[in-house]
Fold:
Amino acid sequence: MKYKKVEAGFLFLILLIISGCSEKEVPYISNDEQQFIVETVTGYLDSLPITVTSEVCERSAGGPNDFYSEGDYWWPDPENPDGPYIQRDGETNPENFVAHRLAMIRLSKIAGKQTSAWLLTGDQKFADAVGRHLEAWFVNPETRMNPSLNYAQAIKGRLTGRGIGIIDAIHLIEVARSVEILDQNKALPESLVSPVKAWFSEFVTWLTTHPYGIDEMNTKNNHATCWVMQVGMFARLTENEKVLELCRTRFKDILLPDQMADDGSFPLEIRRTKPYGYSLFNLDAFMTAAEILSDENHNLYQFSTPDGKNLELGAEFLFPYVEDKSEWPYGEDVMYWDEWPVRHPFLLFAGRAYNKPEFIELWKTLDGYPETQEVIRNLPIRNPLLWVMDKPVQ
Structure:
């Protein structure tokens, strides 16, 4: 686990703030990390919101309130530098426009960690800080993002946007979960929660009816998994039972049967140029989807296809290769091989669901605060307290 040690004086103050928060009361997260979370978010309580209106790309076909990004693996053609971009799968072009994606990731970091600090302390100032960012992103007409992704992952000279760009919005999952927690505990005013939920409701409608959303839903690999993961979370926040049932059905009837092999691997990810990173990413998404979509009447962790495919099998397949990456038999990723693994949520979720303490113990040893942007981009679930707690420590 990597995080900075706090200064002695501030550490004493933090200990006072979260006094009574024992390891038993806060599952899986050490006292040191609890202190680190509260210290970190206290340091940026007054940070100003940065939304999609803060930076505009001249190549965007949308307006100032539209989210815009460019496909990661598309590059200038050396033989035609001013012409349409060409693809280099798995190789990220650092010159492409990703400012809106980074702003969304920043929002997810702020909302997730501020809500985590609120869970640890019950201090209203942390909830209020989340509220300021929610208002800017989803309510204020001058700064809000339109509830659509018409211009995501565009390709210069080819496309102004693609359904595949919907995956950029996975970083709103922990934002929606933060809203859910704070709303359930009456820590945000209804005058804010109502329009925020209305935004997510509009977004769910777009994701389930627009051709881009339908295209993404019907993809064959991790994109389809991420569609179910994010749409499921947004539908849960807005209490859209019809869409929740759609997501559960796709999980059981399409995602698991079509993506998982008999040994628990994901062949469509293994054949990519980054087989290790994509396999981890897809299992993280599967497990998070199960966490989101399971309730007292539905347990996707325990679901198996008629031929025996299930999430426990997937976790057992990947666990040894997280424990010892050198044993991975499918070749090194073309980029970012050294940066994986990190603190993958599949280890936490599977450890809890299947009573596998070795999964959780391994999870605790891994880096929960990666700094490489490519890793963060593929790790939307970074705040474990949001998933193991739903009210402040008593």
